[in-house]
Write a structure and sequence with these properties.
Chain A is mostly beta strands and about 120 residues long. Chain A contains no helices and 13 strands. Chain A is about 0% helix and about 55% strand. The chains are: A mainly beta (about 120), B mainly beta (about 120).
Chain lengths: ~120, ~120
């Protein structure tokens, strides 16, 4: 089954404790992206990756890191989480056709609470 | 810079009424893509439609229809004969090139409540 998986689905942590949210897709998609969703703000793009070893900042990259060492995986790293990073996080992937993005497939979301 | 505006924060309708969700966008690109996604109460994001900037034909899929008007930079979504299962948050999104890379911008979403 074609899908995007994220782990963990729920996470409670404390300020400053490094964490990683994993994202994996089995569709051989070139493009992957991370978003955060906050009430009243919709989805905002954190980082995206056009292909292996190619990443770039989205609209709200501060406090986050990513890496794309393999095509299928795109982990999101919070080196020192703070309470303002409490949010619902989505990973997404899509094909990249002719330089433009095809439809994005989203993971189920990771709900993060930073105390 | 690209921007997507969904001015309607919340809409309530009675079942079987028609409802239109508005989406207005800003972009400098001549080639871009527009999307609508649905987020039901369970939280997942469900793809509804993708439209490229060169295709201004309206589209109908069952009770759903989309009206794309480049002249007004709008991509509105209409649900005909709404049902309780349509209750969800709906997001409009814009994808364009930005310095050779692709960027996606979502609107803030419209929460639709369909009352039985």
């Amino acid at each position: 089954e074609a899908q995007v998986t994220q782990n963990p689905r729920y996470l409670i942590t404390v300020t400053g404790k490094k964490l990683t949210v994993t994202c994996s897709q089995n569709m051989n998609h070139e493009y992957m992206s991370w978003y955060r969703q906050d009430p009243g703000l919709g989805l905002r793009q954190i980082y995206y990756s056009m292909n292996v070893e190619v990443t770039d900042k989205g609209d709200v990259p501060e406090g986050y890191k990513v890496s794309r060492k393999e095509k299928r995986n795109f982990p999101l790293i919070l080196e020192s989480p703070s309470p303002n990073q409490t949010s619902l996080y989505f990973c997404a992937s899509s094909l990249k056709t002719g330089g433009y993005q095809e439809t994005q497939y989203f993971g189920p979301g990771t709900r993060l609470l930073v105390l | 810079a690209q921007k997507v505006t969904q001015a309607q924060t919340e809409i309530s309708v009675v079942e079987k009424e028609d409802v239109t969700l508005d989406c207005v966008y800003e972009t400098r690109d001549t080639t871009y893509y527009l999307f609508w996604y649905k987020q039901p109460p369970s939280g997942e994001l469900v793809f509804l439609i993708r439209r490229n900037s060169f295709d201004e034909q309206n589209e109908i899929s069952g009770r759903y229809s989309w009206n794309f008007q480049k002249s007004t930079s709008s991509f509105n979504f209409t649900i005909t004969a709404s049902q309780v299962v349509d209750s969800a948050v709906y997001f409009c999104a814009l994808s364009e090139r930005s310095g050779g890379y692709q960027k996606v911008t979502f609107g803030t979403g419209t929460k639709l409540q369909v009352i039985p």
